[in-house]
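Hello forum,

I keep getting stuck at the same step: I have a sequence, I want structure tokens, and every attempt I make locally crashes halfway through. Rather than fight my setup again tonight, could one of you with a working pipeline run this one for me? It's a single chain of 122 residues.
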Amino acid sequence: MKPLKTLFFTLLLGSVAYADRYSAGESIYFEKGCQSCHGLQAQGLHEFPKLANQKVKVLRSKLLDYQNDRIKTPQASIMTPFAKALSSQEVELVIEFLSHFKVRESQERYETEFSTWGDGGS
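Reply #2:
Ran it on my machine without issues. Output:
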């Protein structure tokens, strides 16, 4: 019975640590301004790529390439300063967030008073 309890608490602590890392990565994504180019849902905007649910290996490779000036594209002049501003710990946390991205529905969609009637079609 004791090994089962140990396993249960280990898994529980691991899930708490994951949730903390995910939240920290989410904070970094928004505090550092990533959503300005990649979108609120990390879906990508215009020429800026989708980041949500990309593979860890791909995200890490791209961020490190930007940090080390290995990418030479028009977007690199925008992205490189953002990447260089991230510490190695911040890189890992934002990768954790993006690789396990969860879409959040707008809270107001579920409030009973919310209505789109009369909004002028906007």
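Confidence is low (pLDDT under 50) at residues 11-16. If your local run keeps crashing, start a new thread with the error log.
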